[in-house]
Amino acid sequence: MFIFGWGPRETLINSDAFDCPVCKKTTQRKHVRQRSWMSFFFIPILPISSSRDFIRCQACQSIIPIDSYLGQSNQPVRLSRQALVGMLCGLFSLLTFCIARISIPNAICAIALGHVALRDIRKNHPNVDGRSLAIAALGLGYPALILSSAIGLSSLLRPRQFAGNDLVEDSIGAIADPQGNPETFRASDSPNESFKNAEYQIASKRDQPAGRGNSPEAIEMAKLFSERIRELSDEVFTKGRKPLLQLSDGEYLTFCELHPDRVLFLVHVPSYRKFTSDAKKTLAQLSWLVAQSTTAGHFKGEAKLGVGLRGVLTYGDILLGTAPASTEDSVTAFRTGDKEDLLEFFKAKIATDSTVRDMSKTVPGLPSYSLPSSDPFEPQPTPPLESPARGDLSVTTPPAPVVPAPIVPAPEAAAPGRSKPSRSKPKIDFANKISVELSGAIENTSWGTTSIALSPDAKWLAAGKMDDKLALFEVATGKPIGEPYPLLQAGQVTAVAFSAQGDQLVAGGYSGKTFAWQVSPDGSLLNEQEFFRFDSEIVTLATSPKFGFFIGASRKGTVAWQPFGLQKSQPRLMQQFQKEVCAVWLPSSGDEAMATDGARWIRFSLRDGEVSESDDLGIKSANLACFSRSGKRLVIADFNTLHLTDLAQRTSRKSIKLPRGDMAYALKFHPQENWVAVGMRGKVALFDFDRAELIAYADAESVFYQKNIEFSSDGRSLAATSDSARDTIKIFRIGHSKLESTTSEEPQP
N or C: which end of the chain has fewer CB within 10 A? Predict the structure, then answer.
């Protein structure tokens, strides 16, 4: 906090005996000179007024003007206004030296006024004061002029990536093809330099359009994003008085880094520092919606999508996820990331083929535009479908036999009279090695489902909802247990979990609050209790396999645990992560738990939160993670790759590339720990942990991403659903193996 102020400050000139004309006594007098000063943290810094001399009687404390005491009229000493204004101009020019067009004029004014003030002071001495201010104006103005001139000259001489909207050759960022074809672009040899160049592009308006990018197509996409987010922000946020200094002129300056398999929007948010925490959350959600709608349907398959929101100097929210495959797909959730994650979007190879769909299509809700016929994003004839081989396996054991991946056909052509293409469910062309049968379905007639949990006996299913409610269903019949339970204080219910005995249910939401209830024999919830609260969204909850307490983690990296039931006590907190915690684990014996954010794994004490073991997993862009029931195994998803780690022997790691076109949206270990379930689009895939191979698909008969999956405690039931409104919750029966060699530990029917 900075404290500025101003006030009078007195200086003693001399002191001697005199006859006071007020009290008529012979006493001590003090000759005092008073002047007003500007202070910083109560320390006088600059004089801001002329000086005034007077005599103060020490007996009666009377103040006698010096002119009346001396019996003569002296001209008062005045402060040079040129010196004061020059000093202020010099200070402002030095503070804004990085913006040449603002700093240079102020520096010139400071220098000119400083010299004029010195001449005036010498000519009218001693009636004019302010020599120190004039010298300060020169001392600030000359360095500011030199610095800002150097920066301005370097920016003029530096070959930029774009001049206006024209692509020009540059040693960093995207550059034109040597043959002169501007449609072929590539990344710089140094992603760091490309990233810095992109940040430079959105540092200030510079009389250019708000949209910038590494290609003409990227510029058009950035323009769309900037226009739409500005419209939405004007509607949602209250307009205030425009700041005096605003580098973006009130626009959302956007740089789009576009490649065939990824797209990134770097956004300069005007007056970002004035946003409250709630406003920043809302802006992050709006930005993700706009990024999804801007990129929907422009890529063949799914592509990585990122949004970075920043102010003048620092970043706020960094959002990472995937771009929708079509404009009909629902909006996918995002995860928060770090600044280092943005570098991945600048590591791309030359892209000469047309791997992105036509951008001249109209995106619903966004302004339409068209591109030249030579646009490399123009759709090409669809090649004949082939059966792609399963992804490569990086394992230390001999590779398993290749398993064919599912074929995802292209969307069918629109029927006559229809303006939108029909949505097709991903086709599964794979022979399961274990039996997976659809045993039931729970109709979801309300808002989307954000989290699910099965009771240990698979009798009840709890579903957290987007409309701030908690719903319970009977699995056997699919019927709801009463009306959905309102949790307005929790917000969206983002995590739910049953206790090991099934008699307790815990839930947490977007507001960071957690709650627990007793589950009666008929499935109703009793005796609600509120427990620990985070300052951000709860992302995962887990209950102890043996004891009566639970643990939770927040999006900002905080972990907390607390007993539930009658033995309620104060929670214990631990802050060991700087980003979202992907998974937590509680032991059945002992007092050491585990947690991971995908990049780092730790083991810590439940008594005091002290970390006893830590390991860098080396996965920077992880978005999902899950511990096995015993805590001996860990699986982490990195978009389209699974990283399998045996925590007992962490030197032995395996990786599985998901079938082409598929990405992981949910992870869950089978209770017997030999299988891993992965939520995908319209299906759930089962992988064998030991063999690192695909063994089965559970067809959810849906076109949406299965983001919520859960096993029953015996491993015989699997529940799966998306977060889309009215999407059915499917219950699958997991049976025995069709191939005896598939696994040595398999659940029996």
Answer: N
State how beta strands 128-129 and 78-79 pair.
parallel
**Could you give the 3-state DSSP secondary structure of residue 479?**
coil
Instruction: Quickly name the fold that domain 394-411+428-737 has.
Output: Methylamine Dehydrogenase; Chain H (2.130.10)
The DSSP result for 720-734, as a single string, is EE-SSTTPPEEEEEE
Q: Where are the domains of the chain?
A: 4-154, 159-175+191-346, 394-411+428-737
Q: Tell me which amino acid residue 49 is.
A: S
Q: What does the alpha-carbon distance between residue 538 and residue 512 come to, in Å, rounded to a whole number?
A: 5
User: How far apart are the C-alpha atoms of 593 and 585, rounded to whole Å?
Assistant: 6
Mean pLDDT of 666-685: 92
Separation of alpha carbons 406 and 390, rounded Å: 9
Question: CA-CA distance, 739 to 748, in Å (whole number)?
Answer: 13
Compute and round to an integer the Cα radius of gyration of the chain: 34
Cα–Cα distances (Å) from 531 to 457, 551, 556, 572, 582, in that order, read: 26, 11, 18, 11, 21
Q: Length of the chain, please?
A: 749
Cα 426 to chain centroid distance, Å, stands at: 31
Give the relative orientation of helices 81-95 and 131-157 as an angle to the nearest 10 degrees. Answer: 30
Give the start-end residues of each E strand in 479-617: 485-486, 493-498, 504-509, 513-519, 525-533, 538-543, 549-554, 558-563, 572-575, 583-585, 592-596, 600-605, 611-616
Q: Tell me, what amino acid is at 443? A: E
Q: Which of 163-167, 285-289, 355-359, 521-525 has the lowest mean pLDDT?
A: 163-167
List Cβ neighbours of 602 (8 Å cut-off, separation of 6 or more). 576, 594, 595, 596, 611, 613, 614, 615
Using the CB atoms, write b or e for 478-517: b if 16+ within 10 Å: eebbeebbebeebbbbbbbbbbbebbbbbbbbbbbbbbbb
Return the ∠ at Cα 78 (arms to 74 and 79), rounded to 5°: 160
pLDDT exceeds 60 at position 24: yes
Spatial distance between the Cα atoms of 63 and 56, rounded to a whole number of angstroms: 5
Among 115-129, 399-413, 432-446, 545-559, the minimum mean pLDDT is found in 399-413
Which is it for the CA torsion 202, 205, 209, 210, positive or negative?
Answer: positive
Question: What percent of the chain is modeled with pLDDT above 70?
Answer: 75
Residue 256 has pLDDT above 90, yes or no: yes
Mean pLDDT for 100-107 is: 87
Query: Rounded to whole angstroms, what are the CA distances from 341 to 195, 292, 318, 346?
Result: 11, 19, 9, 10
Q: How many CB atoms lie within 10 A of CB 268?
A: 25
The predicted pLDDT at position 48 comes to: 66
Residue 406 DSSP code? P
Residue 671 has a pLDDT of 92
Rounded mean pLDDT, 559-574: 82
> What does pTM read for this prediction?
0.50
H helices of 176-309, in order, are 191-201, 216-236, 277-295
Residue matched to tokens 């539930």: 564
Distances (CA, A) of 535 to 135, 289, 555, 598: 50, 23, 9, 21
- In whole angstroms, give the CA distance from residue 713 to residue 719: 12
Crossing angle of helices 100-123 and 81-95, rounded to 10°: 160
- Report yes or no: 252 and 210 within 8 Å, Cβ to Cβ: yes
The answer to whether residue 357 scores a pLDDT higher than 80 is no
Q: Is residue 382 scored above 50 in pLDDT? A: no
pLDDT, averaged across the chain: 77
What are the distances in angstroms from CA 525 to CA 125, 373, 482, 552?
A: 87, 62, 10, 21
